[in-house]
Amino acid sequence: MDKTNRFLASLNYFSVFFAPFLLPIAIYFIVDQLEVKSHAKKALVSHIIPFLSLIGVVMVLFFSAGADSSQEGIFLSFIFGFLFVGLINLIVGIWNIVKGIQLLIRD
């Protein structure tokens, strides 16, 4: 893979900070190189994971509010949900940075 394609592949991962969905989709359809397309798909999946975790936490909060009417239970669900989503976002962010740097320094 030449330098331009390596840069585009790494840019897919770094785009989590500035264009999480748009850039990997655009690169997937514009670039013809299969390895860049593969990295675009992986980056897109890694950008979707935090939003899915957020949707899951919102659903848990919704159902816990309906099942448990105590404020303490709802508050604990909110705190644990917030920590869970934060941890997922941190892990995905670090993974994207590592993958982007690996592609840039690869020979």
From TrEMBL:
Membrane topology: Multi-pass membrane protein
Transmembrane portions of the chain: 12-31, 43-67, 73-98
Organism (species): Metabacillus endolithicus
InterPro entries: MamF_MmsF
Domain of life: Bacteria
Keywords from the named record: Membrane, Transmembrane, Transmembrane helix
Primary localisation category: membrane
Pfam families: MamF_MmsF
UniProt subcellular location: Membrane
Protein name (Swiss-Prot/TrEMBL): DUF4870 domain-containing protein
Keyword Membrane annotated: yes
